[in-house]
Amino acid sequence: MRTIQIPYFIPFVALALIAPYYLPPYYLYIAIISLYYSILASSWNLLAGYTGQISFAHAALSSIGAYTSALLVINLGIPTLGGIVMGGLSSFVVGYLLGKVCLRLRGPYLALTTISFSEIFRIIVTIEYEYTRGSLGLNVPPLFEARDFITYYFVFLGLFTVIMSIKYLMLRSRIGLFLRSIREDEEASNGMGVDTVKWKQFAFAVSGLFAGLAGSFLAHFILVVSPEMGRLGEMALIISMTVIGGMGTFWGPVIGAFIVEFASELLRDVGRLQLVVFGALILVIIRYFREGIWGYIDRIFRGRLHV
To answer: Does the domain formed by 6-15+26-300 have CATH 3.30.160?
Structure first.
C-alpha cells in the first residue's frame, strides 16, 4: 500500500464537511446510509481483499451488533452509547469465534460455513418473537432526541474516519504484511514463520468489530432492527460495492458504496431492472477493470495520487 499524497484529498475532505449543509434531507439520508455501507464494505475488504478469506457473515455481524445494542438499551436501560460499544464488542467476539471455527477451512468450504452461520442467526432472530419481535422488527431508541440528520451525518463521518484511520495504520504496519502474505500464499507464509492461525482470527475479529459498530450506529439512526438486516441479499450488496470500487484497495470499497447506494436510489423506479444494471456493471468491472474503479483512477493519477 503506497503513501497518501495529502493535498489531493483536501477537496474531498472539504466536500465531506460542507456537503451536509447544502444537501436536501433525502440525499443527506442517503449519504448517511452510504457511510454505513462504506464501513461494512471496508471491513469485509480487510478480511477478503487483504487476507484472502471469503466470508459471507458480515451482514450478520452487523446485525448482531445492532440487536445487542438495542436489547441492552431497551431491557437493561444502559446508555445508548454504551449499548453501541457493547454491540461492537459482541460482533468482535463472534467474529473471533467464527474465525476460530473456520481456521482449517478455505475457499468454498469457508464460504458455505459463513453462509450457514448467517442463515442460522437470521432464523433465530426471526422465530424468537419474545425478545426480537421476529420479522416485525425491534423498535430502537434514537441516539439523539432531536431528529437532526446533520448531527447523525457527522457522527457516522466520525466513526468512518476513526475506523478507516485504524485500518490504514494496521495495513501500513507489519500486521498488513502478515495479512497480505496469507492472501498470496498461506502455506509459504506459514513456512516463513507467520502465525497464520492467529492473524486469520485477528482479521475476522477486527472486521467483525467494525461491522458491529456500524450496525449498532445504524440501528439507533433508522430506529428499527429486523432480520432483514442480516440477510444474504445484504451480503451480496456489500460484495458488489467492494468489487465495483476495487477489492484489495483501500478506498475502493468506499467509492463502490457511494456509487451503488446513490445509483440504487436513482434507479428505484425501474424496480428489478436495477439488478440487471448492477450485474452488467460488475461484469464490465471484472472484465476490464480488475482492480475496480479505484484501480482505474489510481492508474490515471499514478505518481500523483497513491493510496
So the answer is: no
